[in-house]
Design goal:
Blueprint: H1 7-36, H2 42-45, H3 52-55, H4 58-68, H5 75-87, H6 91-103, H7 125-141, E1 149-150, H8 152-166, H9 171-181, H10 185-194, H11 197-207, H12 209-218, H13 221-226, H14 228-241, E2 250-253, E3 261-263, E4 268-271, H15 288-293, H16 300-312, H17 324-342, H18 349-354, H19 357-370, H20 393-408, H21 412-421, H22 425-430
Parallel strand pairs: 1-2, 2-4
Antiparallel strand pairs: 3-4
Helix pairs in contact: 4-5, 5-6, 6-7, 8-9, 8-12, 9-11, 14-16, 14-17, 16-17, 17-20, 20-21
């Protein structure tokens, strides 16, 4: 006998069909919505930045940044635009954009002092409200307990990565969806590290997909949490030697194998992709620099503290801020303060290299010649591009200068303050054992 379907079955099938159609329609509408959002290519956006001082087109460039940020709403881009408006003397626009930056996650209470073009600002309601918000942020960040490791970006990334890896023709659209639908910090990380969707696709899908597949299995949130106690202890040590210390959030994010960490005005960003070293790590598609630079998870506390020091820095030496001297001190002090706060003496291959007196003399001679240059190609961020010496020696010579400055200083607390806030980088060098670099001949 042929079985007849009950009315309830028909009703169920009808609603199930309606539900599936609605879901598919919702997915399509959502996809169209993401595709319509504007995601700027940061390289293209800043291609005329170098000529800004000579052209004086500050208002125009700031307007361009604001327009480019219309959908992304990156706090970092709002701060950049505010900085440009400050140089144009547009204090009202500065206040508006700093409010927007805070709305979207900016958490640096010292941000006003970083706007070097802003000599004063009006006693207006907008500025008064801004100062009140920054004071509130400062009060909150004073406590070490404010520190936390935010891993939402890493946790959400893997589904997007798998989709992109399985549908390479739409991978860039999938990564764009990740930027807009993932945690808010991704929008700032896009600005400072991803730069554009081509870079994400190029590294994650084209160059080293096997590494990222491996990293998905390797990534263990529990391992990160286990390191939090050590990191917190080191932060407390830092607070004891630098009472003005502030402690922003730490965001563990999926990077593109170009940075272990970076500090922004939102907080500290740690590239979770750079902590996958093990004997089983696949190396296909990795550059020699990446193979060498990828770290163990156990290295994360030191890197976190290094980036924390960058967040504290508030240098006022506008004359020398772009020089090699300023840049090696800016990086070196971070490594030195990690050593000071952790109690673990810095050991690395660069220090071993410089322990050879002949090599050290040659490097110091080069540094002497480059001190006031703005070309840091011999000193920083040169992994894979320099062949006559170890890469990133600027970190190491900066560390040596800062360590000796601290050792020579009678007031240690003031020495830490100067290392993070100096208005004259030459003072640091003169107070160190390397003041001879300022002499005519070594």
């Amino acid at each position: 006998m042929k079985r007849r379907n009950s009315p309830q079955v028909f009703i169920f099938v009808f609603f199930l069909t309606f539900f599936l159609i609605s879901c598919n329609s919702g997915i399509e509408n959502d996809k169209k919505g993401i595709n319509s959002l504007y995601l700027p290519d940061i390289n293209s956006l800043y291609e005329n930045y170098a000529q800004l001082d000579s052209t004086g087109a500050y208002n125009s460039f700031a307007n361009t940044l604001v327009n480019a940020n219309r959908d992304l709403n990156s706090s970092e881009l709002y701060v950049e635009a505010a900085s440009i408006y400050a140089q144009a003397g547009q204090s009202d626009s500065v206040a508006i954009l700093l409010h927007r930056a805070i709305d979207n996650g900016m958490a640096n209470p010292k941000i006003i002092s970083k706007l070097h073009g802003l000599r004063d600002y009006p006693d207006s309601p907008s500025w008064l409200a801004l100062q009140k918000r920054l004071d509130s942020i400062n009060s909150e960040l004073q406590n070490v307990s404010h520190y936390s490791m935010e891993i939402g970006s890493m946790n959400q990334f893997w589904d997007y990565f798998e989709r992109a890896a399985n549908d390479t023709s739409n991978a860039k659209d999938i990564f764009k969806e990740f930027i807009f639908k993932g945690p808010n910090e991704l929008r700032d990380f896009y600005v400072v590290r991803y730069i554009n969707l081509n870079a994400m696709y190029g590294q994650m899908i084209n160059a080293s997909p096997e590494y990222f597949h491996y990293l998905k299995k390797q990534f263990n949130p529990d391992s990160l949490e286990a390191l939090k106690s050590k990191t917190t202890d080191w932060m407390r040590n830092f607070k004891s030697i630098y009472p003005k210390a502030v402690f922003p959030k730490v965001y563990i994010v999926p990077g593109i194998l170009n940075s272990g960490g970076t500090a922004t005005e939102m907080g500290l960003f740690i590239g979770g992709d750079m902590y996958g070293r093990s004997e089983a790590m696949p190396t296909e598609g990795l550059t020699n620099w990446q193979k060498d630079a990828i770290m163990k998870v156990s290295d994360l506390p030191a890197l976190t503290l290094h980036e924390l020091m960058h967040f504290q820095q508030n240098y006022q030496d506008t004359e020398n801020k772009e020089t090699v001297l300023a840049q090696v001190i800016s990086e070196g002090v971070c490594d030195f303060l990690v050593e000071l706060c952790s109690g673990e003496e810095l050991k690395n291959s660069n220090l071993t290299y410089l322990s050879d007196q002949e090599k050290e003399l040659k490097i110091l001679e080069d540094l002497k010649n480059d001190l006031f240059s703005e070309d840091n190609s011999k000193w920083l961020y040169n992994g894979g591009s320099i062949t006559d010496r170890p890469h990133d020696l600027g970190y190491t010579v900066g560390y040596m200068i800062c360590k000796s400055y601290y050792r020579n200083a009678p007031d240690k607390e003031n020495a830490v303050f100067e290392l993070l806030n100096t208005n004259d980088f030459l003072t640091i060098l003169r107070g160190s054992d390397y003041s001879f670099l300022l002499e005519k001949d070594l």
